Amino acid sequence: DDKAPAAAAGLLAGDIIQTLNDEPINDMGHLMRMIGSIPAGTKVALDIRRNKQPMKMQVIVGAKPPMNDD
Questions:
Q1: C-alpha distances in angstroms, 42 versus 13, 25, 67, 69?
Q2: Which residues pair with 56 in a beta bridge?
Q3: Would the pTM of this model clear 0.85, i.e. be above it?
Q4: Residue-wise pLDDT tens digits, 13-64
Q5: Phi and psi dihedrals of 51, rounded to 5?
Q6: What is the DSSP secondary-structure string of the chain?
Q7: Burial bucket for residue 34 (CB in 10 Å: 0-12, 13-18, 19+)
């Protein structure tokens, strides 16, 4: 989804986020809790792996999308 916060930040399907602000990511739940504690609009540093290559990114945390009650 091109409108998802991760896509807007420049992340692609298949990217593996390894650290957030130099803190290792243990699993997806850990990552979501960390991101949830950071205010929208804050710049963060990510170390990712894309196509088996390490990359560093600076991204702006987006607003949490509204929940669907469907």
A1: 23, 18, 21, 28
A2: 47
A3: no
A4: 999 999 999 999 999 999 999 999 999 999 999 999 999 999 999 999 887 7
A5: 50, 45
A6: -TTSHHHHTT--TT-EEEEETTEEP-SHHHHHHHHHTSPTT-EEEEEEEETTEEEEEEEEPPPPPPPP--
A7: middle
Query: Tokens representing 14?
Result: 């298949």
Q: Are 35 and 10 in contact (CB under 8 A)?
A: no
Q: Which amino acid is at 49?
A: R
CB 31, CB 6: distance < 8 Å: no
Amino acid letter for position 35: I
